[in-house]
Write a structure and sequence with these properties.
By secondary structure, this protein is α+β, with helices and mostly antiparallel strands. The chain has a domain of 198 residues: tt1808, chain A. The strands form 3 sheets. A 6-stranded mixed β-sheet has the order 1-4-6-7-8-9, with helices on both faces. Strand 7 and strand 8 form a beta hairpin. The longest helix is centred in the C-terminal third of the chain and has 101 residues. The protein starts with a helix and ends in a 6-residue tail after the last helix.
Length: 309
Amino acid sequence: MSTARHDRRESSPIPLLDPPFWDAYDPNFPDSDGRPMADNQTQYKWMVTIAEGLDDLYRDRLDVLVACDLLWYFDPDDRRRCCAPDVFVAFGRPKAPRHSYKEWLEGHAPQVVFEIHSPSNTPAEMGRKLRLYDGRGVEEYYYYFPEEAAGQFDGWRRGPGGLEPIASTDGWTSPRLGVTFEAPPVDNALVLRRPDGEAFQHVQDIMKDRRAMRRLARVERRRRRAEQGLREEAESRRAESERLARDERLRREESDRLREESDRLREEAVRAADDERRRREAAEAEARRARDRAERMAARLREMGLEED
């Protein structure tokens, strides 16, 4: 397919509300080509990692289809003209289950294709696939050989002459996907990073991380419970200390009140004793004065020759 034809298909995609053609099984275009999804666990792991990572990246885009090992038919008159890319992404197509991807119904070819090397792949076959994807108008094509000594990762991007090799894929960011590829030549591990920098993970790694997070959550819950226990114990000690301080304050206040009451009673007793002493002294003084008057009166009577009766 020429680039011009590809561009015309891109400019007038089938609306998202077209009939749900993917619901009906068409025996003329089988779901399977009779070949296994993957030849080995390594290939399967990378197919799932890339497909699931892309599917999650576009989880909120209803117009982006991510497919893994889905048969892609090119010709409505010849079901032999098909292929099953390990992973492909079709923008402008509904995110819905399909028996196959029929290009004449979808309106255009997938824009991005991934292939993971398997032992059955030959250079001739991979060259044929490259020519096929180029002819169908694929915009970006990526090929990963995870078991290669240096973890070979190659890419092609559509240019004026069709699919052209990407000079360096290490650090390359897909124009269509926004995904950055890191292909270090030492540890054989391809890394795909989302626009936010988070790396794609295989489901087993995700589950391992999830288990680790659950363990950490349990440890954190125990830590919080221990801290809560310490806070409650400290609060109990503080409350007990405040209670003891309050009791001591009340004891001191009661002691001060009793001392003040004792001082008041002692002062009253002293005042009463003083009053009684002054009263007694006054009575004694009055008695002396009365006695003196009586003696003076008796003396005068004697002087006058009068005897007191």
